[in-house]
Structure formats: structure tokens, C-alpha cells
Amino acid sequence: MTDESAALAYIKNHVQFSFKPRREIDIIVERKFNQVLKDASENCDFYKNTPIPFPFLTKEEVRGNIDTGLISNKHIGHPCLVLDRTSGSLADSVPFAYLRGFERYARMVLPFMINTQWKWGQRYCVLSTVHCSRDRCSTSDLPAYVDQVKIPTSDHIFTDQEVLEKAASVLNDNQKTIVHADPFYLCAVAYYLDMNKKRLSLKGISSTYELLTLPVQRYLERIFQCRVFDCYGCSEFGPIAFGCEKDGKHVFEDSVFVEIVDQGRYLDGDVGEIVVTALENPAMPLIRYRTGDLGKWITKPCGCGRTAKKIEIYGRKGQCISFKGILYSERDIARLMDIPGVLLYQLIQSPCHSRESGDFTFNILPEKGYAANGKRNKIGQEIKNRFGQLGTGHLSVVFVDHIEPEKSGKFKTVFIE
């Protein structure tokens, strides 16, 4: 069997698995999870003599043990072993390893296939941070069945006119194509097109890398005249959950085991930290790994008919704000910021010793058509009404013409000084 036929069989199996009876899925996942624990205990020095249940694995532990026992003894020196790092500075990024294969790519394109008319082997475009675009494999290293076009990107995507023009040109040349993108970076290109009174027609947009807010989703769908479906993953594991036809996010349960822990601390009591175990990475079996992301299970049956677990993402654990002793996640804040005319925002919390919540500055990038002072005053007043009742300190609203990503290339909607 060739890699291509194996990848297609892998996708078919994942699709079928997501429709299996719930009890059957649970039995298979438990068996695979226990096998991962057994293999890790036997082949990874880090996990030897670890009591069961395995404790949670932190990013700090991974940084400190990547060279001293986290990589399986059976795969050290393997010709297909890939060593990589997450985005960010050397101190903040996390090293990880996996065996090069088709699995990550297959999981990435599965939602292309179920949400649009995209076919295996067709072209797709990618727009991400400079780090991901530069450090991941070049197009020349990709298998023959992968037709990928990288969209030009920049650390200053909103203000780099040359890159914006090139990115818009690439998208114009690839209309009716799938775009797999960071929603904030694609929003910058959409904003550039909007300001130049242009629209494009894409086949679909697979949003990933960052939390997708409703205003950004609606804006992208309007400018690019296609549906946006939201997926979830992280560098250490690749795709973790895929967006379905009914806007649910289903976990790839045959590839990763997901837990949600530390619930009861947030505005929604079911929200907690997402903990992931890799079921298909024998080279470096991350077990019960704290992702730093927040999520909750969606127990309502999905309209698509799949029985694979559904998850909703609530943003980064480190970007929560406490109001009156209650932690508001990025998604909670995004819902409060779903105000007509607000496209992007950055909430900056400054410490104030006399108040628990501190003082707040809201940097607002308004949609086109909201330049008039009257409209902006209305936005500012609505923000003050919504957040003022939560017990904030001094609150100011500043309208800006762009919002910069942080040094890692990621956009922060919440910034705590």
C-alpha cells in the first residue's frame, strides 16, 4: 500500500469511527490509551516507574526532559523522527517529536472534504504566522499528492502593505480554493480587501491556530463569500478536533484522548483545561499533557449524526480575567464584545491595587463604515455598559487602525500587564 492509499484509508477509517456507537468508541479508546501507557512505561525513561493513573504532564516537564527520557528508546535515531518546537521564544516554546507520516496531513484535510467539495489531491492555501510558515516543511518537501500554496505573511500583517498586496493577489489567483488559516491573519487580508472595495470567492475556510470569534467568522464569510468552519489543534499533536457540517467540533478520538480538568473555576462551570494524550505518536508519547487551552464538552447530539465527542474551545488559560471573583475566559469576553461595528479588539488589563479587576483599555478595530464619531461613541458606550456592571475599574475605549500580534506571532485578545 502506498502512502497515498494509506492516507485515504486512514481518512475513511476516521470518518467511520466518528459514527460508531458511543460504547464501542469508548472501549476502543480505552484499549489504545492503556497500550500507550504500557509502551511508554517500557520504552521511555521518563515514564518508567510512573504510578497509575499517570499524573498530568506540564510544558515545563517537557522542556526539561526532551533529551532525557521523553523520546522512546525504540525511536531515537529513527530516520523519520521529526524534532520541532512550538511558536514563541526559546524559553517559552515547547519541543516535541513525532514520526514523519501522512497522519497529521490527513486529519487536517478531513474537514475540507466533509464541509466542501474539496477532493483529495486538490490545491489548498495556507496562511499562518511567520514562525509556522518558515519553520514547518517547505512545499518542496511535501509528498506529490499535496498541492499547497503558502500565502505571504508578516509579523506586522495589518501594516505591511507589500505583504497584504501579495497575499490578496495569491488569494485572487486561487479563488474557489480551500484556505487553511489563522483567522486573525486572514482577517487582516480581508480588511485590506474591504478597504479596497474588493471581494473574493473561496471554496471554504478552515480556521485554526487561534480562537475564532463570531464577528471575525461573519466578516470572513462576507468578504470571501464562503463558509468558515472551525477546527482545533496544537503543534504538539496536530489536529485534535474537526469542524463538521453542523458547526460542531468533533474530537479525533481514534488519534487523541482528550480530558477536561479543573472545572468549576470559570463563568461556565463545565469549562476546564484541555488535557491531551497522543494515541498515535510512539516516538514521543505525550500523556495527559496540559495544553493550557480551555474547553467544555458539548453533550447535545450533533445534527451531523456523529457520535464522536464534541468540544467547544474557550481560549487560553492564561488569558482569563477575574470579575467579582469569577474567571471570564476569552470566549466569555468575546461574547461580551460581540457588538455591531467591532471587528477586532484587544482588552488590556492594568493592575489597580484598590480594585480586584484593575483598569481596562479596549483597543478597537472597527469595521468599515464605523469611522463617524457618532457610531464610535455608540460602540464605546455599549462596551462601558456591558463591562461596567462587572465591577471593573477605570475603563477607556481607544479606536485603532490595526492590532499587532505578540512576538510569537499569535494575536492576543486579552493582554494582562
Task: Produce a short descriptive summary.
This protein is of the alpha/beta class.
State mean pLDDT (0 to 100 scale): 93
The CATH class of the largest domain: Alpha Beta
Q: Level of helix content?
A: 25-40%
Approximate strand percentage: 15-25%
What oligomeric arrangement do these chains adopt? single chain
Spatial gap, N to C terminus = 54 Å
Please tell me what the overall shape is. Answer: globular
Q: Which H/E pattern describes the elements? A: HHHEEHEHEHEHEHEEEEEEEEEEHEEHEE
Q: Indicate the CATH architecture of the largest domain.
A: 3-Layer(aba) Sandwich
Domain tally: 2
Strand adjacency order, main sheet: 4-3-5-6-7
Largest sheet: 5 strands, parallel
The strand count comes to 20
CA radius of gyration is: 22 Å
CATH superfamily of the largest domain: ANL, N-terminal domain
CATH topology of the largest domain: Rossmann fold
Poorly predicted ranges: none
The total of helices stands at 10
List keywords for this structure.
alpha/beta; Rossmann fold; 2 domains; five-stranded parallel β-sheet; 25% strand; globular
How are the SSEs placed, and which strands pair?
Blueprint: H1 3-17, H2 22-43, H3 59-65, E1 81-85, E2 95-99, H4 103-115, E3 123-127, H5 130-135, E4 147-150, H6 161-173, E5 178-181, H7 183-195, E6 204-207, H8 214-224, E7 228-230, E8 232-234, E9 238-243, E10 249-251, E11 256-261, E12 272-278, E13 289-298, E14 310-316, E15 321-323, E16 326-328, H9 330-336, E17 342-350, E18 359-366, H10 373-388, E19 395-399, E20 414-416
Parallel strand pairs: 3-4, 3-5, 5-6, 6-7, 17-20, 18-19
Antiparallel strand pairs: 1-2, 8-9, 9-10, 11-12, 12-13, 13-14, 15-16, 17-18
Helix pairs in contact: 1-4, 6-7, 7-8
